[in-house]
Every structure is written in structure tokens, then in C-alpha cells.
Amino acid sequence: MKHSAPAESKRKFQASVGPEESRAGEADEANEEVFKPLSREEAAQWRARQPRFTVWRVVQTQAVLAVLSALIAWGLLGWEMAGSVFYGALCVVVPSAVMAWGITSNLIARLFPGAPRASLASLLLWEGAKVLLVMAMLWSAPRWVPDLNWLALLAGLVVALKAYWLEFFFKTRRKP
Fold first, then answer.
1. Gap between the Cα atoms of 107 and 49, Å rounded
2. Is the pTM of this model over 0.70?
3. In whole angstroms, what separates CA 47 from the centre of its chain?
4. Where are the beta strands (DSSP E) in 79-161?
5. C-alpha dihedral, 111 to 116 to 122 to 128, nearest 10°
6. Phi, psi of 146, rounded to the nearest 5 degrees
7. What is the tens place of the pLDDT at every residue in 56-98?
8. Average pLDDT of every residue of the chain
9. Which residues contact 143 (CB under 8 A, 6 or more apart)?
10. In whole angstroms, what is the distance from residue 41 CA to residue 45 CA?
11. Structure letter (DSSP) for residue 35
12. Are 98 and 134 in contact (CB under 8 A)?
């Protein structure tokens, strides 16, 4: 009786492992689901159930949080702190907006049509521009914000960064 090479190697492997591991492997094979591609209608229904994320919505949430945090700081701590909080939030909002514009403008994709690497290059290029812009804005903060408070600036920066999580939380919440 001839055995195929994969079956023979499988039998040798099962002989080298203990009986518990062999039974676990057989159980995994029995529980393995068969992949079934979705039909066009099923795929459309699946897409309709998934939350839609847009980068502009995140930038909008960051801007709203920036204004709200500055207003709260102004009400509680005064104009000096509010200016620092607002500038810290702007250090997140402005670079995010520049990156969002760069990615959604498809400039690189138009220059190199059909090249999937161009999309990755565009993402890396705009992420680099975003990081450089954040660094430049933080470096120039003492010139632009009178009576700068670095702790308040950091608080505004953190509040604006949490917009990603807030947007993700509200978009993925299931409706009953």
C-alpha cells in the first residue's frame, strides 16, 4: 500500500509527538472551518454593517476637543492657560489636517497610477511631514504663545490626541 508524501510525513510527525498532542491536532482538523467566499449581495450587506471611518471626521473631532478644552481652561484658569492649552491642541490638529489632505488628495497616486507602493510611499511621506510640522510647532511655541505654560500645552496636546480613541469608540459602538 503506497502512501503519499504529505500523509507519510504527517504520520511520522504524529508518531514523534505524544498522544495528547496528536489528539489535539486531530481535533483542530475536525473543527477547521471551510472558507466560503461571499457573494456580491452578502459582501454589500457586510459592508453596510461596518462603521465608516474617515480621517476628516477624526480631524473634526480633534478641532472640537481643542476648542472645548481651551474654553474649559479659560473658564477655570484664565487666558494664559487657555492659550497654552489651545496651542497644544493645535499642535495635533494642524498636522493631522495636513496629513489628511495629503493622503486624500491622491497626488502621488495620480503621478504613479497602478503602483501600490505609491500609496505606502504617500502614507510615509505625509506621516513624516506631520511629525516635522509637530516638531516645528512645538519648537516655535514660546514665540507664538505669550506666557506659555508647558504643562497646559501638554494637556491640550493629550486631549486632542484622545480624539482618535473617542472617534473609534463612538463609531464601533453597536446599536441595539
1. 31
2. no
3. 19
4. none
5. -150
6. -70, 145
7. 888 999 999 999 999 999 999 999 899 999 999 999 999 999 9
8. 81
9. none
10. 6
11. P
12. no
The DSSP letter of residue 66 is H
Question: Grid coordinates standing for 119?
Answer: 500609496
Contact 50, 172 (CB under 8 A): no
Highest mean pLDDT among 43-57, 63-77, 102-116: 63-77
- Determine the Cα–Cα distance for residues 109 and 93; give it in Å rounded to an integer: 25
Nearest to 94 by CA among 152, 144, 51: 144
Lookup: cell for 139: 519648537
How does 115-147 read in b/e, with b if 16+ C-beta sit within 10 Å?
eeebeeebeebbeeebeebbeebbeebeeebee
Q: What is the rounded average pLDDT of the residues 51-57?
A: 80
Q: How many angstroms separate the first and last alpha carbons of the chain? A: 59
Q: What's 145's DSSP letter?
A: S
Residue among 66, 60, 137 at smallest CA distance from 97: 60
Would you say 171 and 53 are in contact if contact means Cβ atoms under 8 Å apart? yes
| 167 vs 173: CA distance, rounded Å | 10
